[in-house]
Amino acid sequence: GYIGVALSTDFYLTAASAVVICIGNGLMLPTMLAWVLRRLPPETRGRGTGVWTGAFFLAQFVAPILAAALSGLLGGLSGTFLLFAAAAALSAGVALLSAGRTARGA
Predict the structure, then answer these.
(1) pTM of this prediction?
(2) pLDDT digits (tens, 9 = 90+) for 18-49
(3) Considering its fold, how many domains does the chain have in total?
(4) 62 partner at 20 to 30 Å CA-CA among 31, 73, 80, 83?
(5) Computed over its alpha carbons, how large is the radius of gyration of the chain?
(6) Distance CA 5, CA 94 (A)
């Protein structure tokens, strides 16, 4: 999705790529929250939910500021979205490796 937005020269391709990003986020966010909460003891899950939610909304506040700053450094929003695509791929790789270790009981 991020690569599609970065390389798009057409409104419809940009919109379709944004839909892909939103579907991915819609699948990822509740899964991440459940993954985090499953590791917390029941008596701290409320606090864990609050910390997770606070971090999520802080990131939503910081992301546009960071994107604007990065677009100046990377020659526009295309470079910024390519960087976000690389960060998302790296994060997915780390999550998959971590999930594999958890499944094996390591």
Answers:
(1) 0.64
(2) 999 899 888 888 888 888 888 899 999 999 88
(3) 1
(4) 31
(5) 17
(6) 23
